[in-house]
Amino acid sequence: VIWLLATDRNVWVRQFTHDKLNHTVAAEGAKSAALGLGKVAAVGLAVGAGIISAPAVAVIGGALLLYSAGSSLFRRSEQARVSGNDNLGEIAGATALDTFGFGGLVEGIRGRELVTGRCLNGNERSRGIRQGIGNAISLAGGSKVFKSSYSQAYPFRGVPQGLTRGQFGDAADIIRSSRAGQYSDDIVVQGSRANGTARPTSDIDFGVRVPEDKFNQILNDRFGTPNPGSAKERTLQNAIETGKIQSGEAGLRPLRRQLESQLGIDVDISVIKQGGPFDQRPIIRLP
Amino acid sequence: MTYQNLYCKIFLDCDLEREQLTQMIAISIDGRIESKTILSNYCEIDIENNEDFHDIQRHDYPDGFLYYPYYLDIEPSEEVLFSSYADVITKLLEYLWNKGYQAVAACDFEEELPRKGGYKWKN
Fold first, then answer.
1. What is the pTM for the complete model shown?
2. pLDDT for A35-51, tens place per residue?
3. Which chain B residues have a beta carbon less than 8 Å from that of A232?
4. Which of A224, A242, A247 sits opposite B4 (nearest CB)?
5. ipTM associated with this complex
6. Could you say which residues from 71 to 100 on chain B have a Cβ atom under 8 Å away from some Cβ of chain A?
7. Fewest Cβ atoms closer than 10 Å to its Cβ: which of A157, A239, A273, B59?
8. Nearest-angstrom CA–CA distance, A25 and A125
C-alpha cells in the first residue's frame, strides 16, 4: 500500500486537498468505521456473554475472509480478461488488498483501477476511499473494541472464568458463613476472573462491599489505634486512601486459605468501601 | 505488655520466585510447607504477591515498603506464648535482613522488634 501511495503521491495530494471531497470522504469514512466497529462490538458482546463461542466466531470469520478472497479473485480476473491484462502479480495483489478491504482505498487514492488502469470518476474514488478508511479504522481499533465489549459482557455468564457453577456456589456458601458474611452480604468477584481475561495462574479476587460507615467500623476494630509513626499506622492510612482492607488485616486469612484449598487457585478477599477506588466493575455477584 | 491483635504483616522486597521464597523462609523458621502456607510450632505464614507492587515506588523512603513485591501474613499458632511468637518474627526479620532483602514489619508490637520492625530504618 505504501509503495502504491508513493508512486502516485501527486494524485494523493490533489485528492486530499479538495475540500468538498474531503468533507464527504471524512463523514462517510467515519460512518463506515462506526458501522465496522459496531459490528465488532456486537460480536465481542455475544462472545463475552457466552451466546456464541470464540472458535465459532473464528470459523465464521475465516469463512467470510475466504468468501471475500474468492469473490474478489473472480472479479479481478474478469477485469483482467476484459482489459487483456495477464499480469498474475497485479491480479493477486489486487485480490489481497480487496480481501482485507483496502483495494478501494488504493484505487481511490491513485484514481485508477488496479488491474485495468481505468480512470475512476469522483464518486468511485470517494466511495473507495471512505470504505477503505472505515476498514482501516475498524482493523486498527477492532481489537480494543472487541476486548472491551467482551469484558463488559462477561459477567452476564454469572460464573467467574475458570470456575464451574458448582464450585462458585460452594465458595459462596463458605464465604457467607464466615466473618466476611458478617461484614456484608454484598460480595462480588472482581478483576480478571470477572471480565474473562484470566490466565490459568491468575488469582480470584473477592470483594466484600461495605458502605463507608461500616468500612470505618471494621478499620477501627481491626487496626485499633496504632502507634504514631509506625508502619502499622502507615498501612492503616493506606487502607483509608485506597478504600480496601486486605484479607490479613481484615481477619479473613483463614477464609482465604479455606477457599484456596477448595478452589485450587490463589484467592484474594478484601473488604472494599463502596464507591472507593477499588470498587470497580465489571463484577459477578455471589449467588 | 499484652496485645489484643497479634497479626503481623511483613512487607518484603526480594527478587526470588514465590516458591523459592517459601522454601527459604520455611527452612529459616523450621517450618513445613502446605501449599503457600508455612506452618511452624509458633506461627502460620502466608506468602502473598502484593497487588500494589510498583517497581519505582518501592524505592521511595520511607513508605516504599507498601509497594514491595511480597507481603507475609503472619498469625500465631494456638496457645503459643507471645514471647515465643515475637522471637520467631525477630529471627525471620534478621534472617531476611542478613540475606540483604528489605523487610518491614507492620504490627502492634513493632517497637519490640529489632530496628523497630524496619520501618524508617536506614543502613
1. 0.83
2. 889 989 999 999 999 99
3. 106-108, 110
4. A224
5. 0.95
6. 71, 73, 75
7. B59
8. 9
